[in-house]
From TrEMBL:
Keywords: DNA-binding, Transcription, Transcription regulation. It comes from the Bacteria. The keyword Cell membrane does not apply. The keyword rRNA-binding does not apply. It comes from Anaerobacillus arseniciselenatis. InterPro entries: GAF-like_dom_sf, HTH_MetabolicPath_Reg, Tscrpt_reg_IclR_C, Tscrpt_reg_IclR_N, WH-like_DNA-bd_sf, WH_DNA-bd_sf. One of its GO terms (molecular function) is DNA-binding transcription factor activity. Residues 67-250 form the IclR-ED domain. May be an activator protein for the gylABX operon. This is Glycerol operon regulatory protein. GO terms for biological process: negative regulation of DNA-templated transcription. Residues 4-66 form the HTH iclR-type domain.
Length: 257
């Protein structure tokens, strides 16, 4: 597998900073990297543009930027959420016999941060770390639908609609209508929109401020889904989402059903 030299060099620059060398001059970086100062300067400016590096204007030295603090907090929150949710996911999977997912928003996509499969689970397409589109997934809709309309409009700017199946929502107007439906009913579904033959029910996980911090879903094959199955699964996933949200400080209702 080929290595992209510029990325490799940029990452090596970041690795130069530690508890001993919290700030470095461009000449120090150039010497340690065995690179010309002009090359190092270009790499630093690129990292600085994305807030991974910042410059101390008092002494001209460079140091790690606030982006690491932001990303570090995000990772810590995700780890805590994953720990908190694990028991709930296992119980839900055991009771429903379905694959259960925990998903967070990362940029313009959802990302699976945990997954539990029961012994009878038949849905195997997902994996932890895999990204999932917003427009074609139940969890994606649940992550975005409860934002303000202004936030949704900003999110959908330059959104890349990719067709997964013939049922995939492929335009902003239709997706906004779907978001409105999700808000009214309190949950989202994916009826063969992201994967043929797969049906998902998804609920948002809310924190003490009522903000959606994650989404939880159950997945099964369409052939196993009927009204009785939906009703039983719906009650269990709703209860799980509410209990998890309550643990995060949320005191409202996720659905009136």
């Amino acid at each position: 597998m080929p290595i992209i030299q510029a990325i490799d060099r940029a990452l090596n620059i970041l690795d130069l900073f530690d508890d001993h060398d919290k700030e470095l001059k461009i000449t120090d970086i150039s010497q340690r990297m065995d690179l010309h100062k002009s090359t190092v300067h270009s790499l630093l400016k690129t990292l600085q543009k994305h807030n991974y590096i910042e410059q101390n204007h008092e002494n001209g030295k460079y140091r790690l930027g606030m982006k690491f603090y932001e990303r570090g907090n995000l990772i810590n929150r995700n780890i805590e959420l994953k720990k908190l949710a694990k028991e709930h996911l296992v119980k839900l999977s055991n009771k429903t016999g379905k694959t259960v997912h925990l998903v967070i928003l990362d940029g313009k996509e959802g990302i699976y941060i945990d997954k539990v499969e029961s012994s009878s689970a038949t849905v195997l397409y997902s994996r932890i770390g895999r990204r999932v589109p917003i427009n074609s997934s139940g969890v994606g809709k649940a992550l975005i639908a409860f934002k303000s309309q202004n936030e949704i409009d900003n999110f959908l700017k330059d959104y890349d609609f990719v067709r997964q199946t013939e049922n995939t929502i492929m335009d902003k107007e239709s997706l906004n209508k779907e978001f409105e439906k999700v808000r009214k009913q309190g949950y989202a579904i994916d009826n063969e929109e992201n994967e043929l033959g797969v049906f998902c029910i998804a609920f948002p996980i809310k924190n003490q401020n009522g903000q959606v911090v994650a989404a939880i879903s159950t997945s099964t094959t369409v052939t196993k889904q009927d009204e009785v199955e939906f009703s039983e699964t719906f009650k269990l996933i709703k209860l799980t989402a509410e209990r998890l949200s309550n643990q995060l400080g949320f005191r409202g209702k996720l659905s009136n059903k």
